[in-house]
Design a protein that fits this description.
By secondary structure, the protein is mainly beta. It is about 5% helix and about 50% strand. Strand 28 and strand 29 form a beta hairpin. The protein is rod-shaped and about 160 Å long. The relative contact order is 0.08.
Length: about 425
C-alpha cells in the first residue's frame, strides 16, 4: 500500500506510542529519501534482530546492506522512482514493509570549488600532456587542460626584413622561455651558424652581407633544455644606401648615394619638410638622380632604397635641402670705391656668398671673397680690387636653418670687370 510522507510520519509517531510488533521490528519504514550527487539516498530506522536489509526500487530488489542507509547510484536525471525496504532477522524470518516512497531524482547544483587534478597522460620533452579537474564534492569531471611540455614550445618567426644596419628577425614570445637561440645559414650552405643568444623576441643580424640569401631559425630555452625549431625563413640581405648627398644644380636638385653591393636598381623618394608620407619619384639603375620638378624656396628631403630583384632594402631618414635657384648676375662696375657686383635676388635665400678670381682658373674655396648676410641687399662692393686688374665674379645663394645649410648653384662663366681707379 502506497502512502504519503505525512502519513508515514504519523505512523512513526504511532509506533513510538504503541508496543513494537514483530512487523515493526523486522520491516523498517523509510525515514528520509533525498537526491544526492551520487544518486538517491535512502535512510530508515534500525530494527532489532535484523541482520540484512533489502532495498526495493519499483518492486525489484536493487541491493542489500547491513547499514540503515543505501544509495541507489543507477538513477537518471528527472526520472521518478518508488522505494521500499525489507528486513531479515537472525532466525531467518523476513518481512517487507508495505510502505513505499516515491522520488524524482534531480542532481543537486555544485559550483565545483573543491577539486583535484587527475593526469590523463603526462607531458614529455617535446609533447604536451593532458589533465582534468575532478570535483571532490560531486564527482564531476571538468574539461581537460593542457600540461605544458617539459621544454618550451617552438617559436614562430613572424617578422623578417632588411633593417638599416642588418637583417631584422622577430618571433612570438614563448611562455617559460628564459632565452632564445637564433641560428643563421647562408645560401648554398648546409651548416647553421650561431647560436646568437638573446633575451628578447627580436634580433638584428648586423653581419649579414648585401646580396646574400640567409635562412633564420629560432629555438626557445628553459630549464629543461632547448625547444625544437621549424624549417626557418629566408630573406636576401639588401643593404641600405648610405651617404646620401643633395646639391642644388642650375635647374634641379642632384641626389647621390653610395652604391650597394649586388643592388640591381634604386628607388628614389622625396617629401616636403613637415609632410609625413614619402612620394616615389623614380627607379634608376645608377647611384644618382636629378630631380627637375622642384620649386625655389621649398625644403625637400630625399631618401633611397636599394633593390635586389624584387627585394627592398630599408632606408635612412634622408638628406634635406632647400631648393635655391641660380643667382643671376646683372653687372660688375668699377668705381672709385671699388667694384660693385649686382645680381638678382633668389627666392628662399637668407644670404649670398661672393666669389672672385683672376684669369680662367676654377671656382674653389680659395676664390671665396665674402658674404652678404641679408636678403635686403643684392649688391656687393669689392674694396680690395686693385687698379688695372680684371676680375671675374660669381654668386651663390644660401639658406641656413639650424644645422642644415643649403647652397644654390652659380653662373660658372661669371661676370668680369677691370678696376680702372
Amino acid at each position: 500500500m502506497k502512502k504519503t510522507l505525512s502519513f508515514v510520519l504519523a505512523m512513526l509517531m504511532l509506533v513510538s506510542v504503541f508496543t513494537v510488533t514483530s512487523f515493526a521490528a523486522l520491516a523498517p519504514e523509510i525515514t528520509e529519501i533525498t537526491s544526492t550527487f551520487d544518486g538517491v539516498s535512502i535512510s530508515w530506522a534500525k530494527s532489532d534482530d535484523v541482520t540484512t536489509y533489502v532495498v526495493y526500487r519499483n518492486g525489484v530488489v536493487i541491493g542489500t546492506t547491513v547499514e540503515c542507509n543505501f544509495i541507489d547510484t543507477s538513477v537518471e536525471e528527472n526520472s521518478k522512482y518508488v522505494y521500499s525496504v525489507g528486513a531479515q532477522a537472525a532466525d531467518g524470518s523476513y518481512e517487507k514493509s508495505d510502505v513505499e516512497f516515491d522520488v524524482v531524482y534531480i542532481r543537486p547544483y555544485c559550483a565545483h570549488t573543491d577539486y583535484e587534478y587527475v593526469v590523463d597522460y603526462p607531458a614529455t620533452v617535446f609533447k604536451a600532456g593532458l589533465k582534468h579537474k575532478h570535483c571532490k564534492a560531486c564527482g564531476f569531471d571538468l574539461p581537460g587542460e593542457v600540461i605544458k611540455q617539459l621544454v618550451t614550445e617552438t617559436p614562430v618567426i613572424n617578422y623578417l626584413s632588411n633593417g638599416i644596419n642588418g637583417v631584422k628577425v622577430a618571433w612570438n614570445a614563448v611562455d617559460g622561455a628564459t632565452a632564445y637561440y637564433v641560428y643563421r645559414r647562408a645560401g648554398g650552405s648546409t651548416k647553421w651558424e650561431g647560436p646568437y643568444i638573446v633575451k628578447d623576441e627580436a634580433f638584428e643580424d648586423t653581419t649579414a652581407k648585401s646580396g646574400v640569401y640567409y635562412k633564420y631559425a629560432v629555438r626557445a630555452l628553459n630549464a629543461a633544455g632547448l625547444s625544437a625549431y621549424n624549417g626557418g625563413k629566408v630573406i636576401r640581405r639588401v643593404a641600405t644606401p648610405e651617404n646620401i648627398t643633395v646639391a642644388n644644380g642650375t635647374n634641379a636638385i642632384a641626389v647621390k648615394w653610395n652604391a650597394v653591393q649586388n643592388a640591381t636598381s634604386y628607388r628614389v623618394y622625396r617629401k616636403v619638410v613637415g609632410d609625413d608620407a614619402w612620394t616615389y619619384l623614380k627607379t634608376v639603375k645608377t647611384n644618382s638622380f636629378i630631380d627637375k620638378d622642384v620649386e625655389s624656396g621649398v625644403d625637400y628631403i630625399y631618401t633611397v632604397r636599394a633593390l635586389s630583384g624584387k627585394i627592398y632594402s630599408n632606408f635612412l631618414p634622408g638628406a634635406q635641402i632647400r631648393r635655391l635657384d641660380i643667382a643671376k648676375l646683372n653687372t660688375a662696375k668699377s668705381t672709385t670705391e671699388g667694384i660693385y657686383v649686382d645680381f638678382e635676388p633668389v627666392e628662399g635665400a637668407t644670404g649670398y656668398n661672393i666669389y672672385r678670381k683672376v684669369g680662367n682658373g676654377a671656382w674653389t674655396s680659395s676664390t671665396y671673397l665674402g658674404a652678404i648676410k641679408t636678403t635686403r641687399s643684392h649688391t656687393y662692393l669689392d674694396v680690395s680690387a686693385e687698379k688695372g686688374v680684371t676680375y671675374t665674379y660669381t654668386v651663390k645663394a644660401y639658406h641656413k636653418d639650424g644645422s642644415v645649410t643649403s647652397v644654390g648653384s652659380y653662373v660658372a662663366k661669371g661676370i668680369s670687370c677691370k678696376d680702372v681707379y
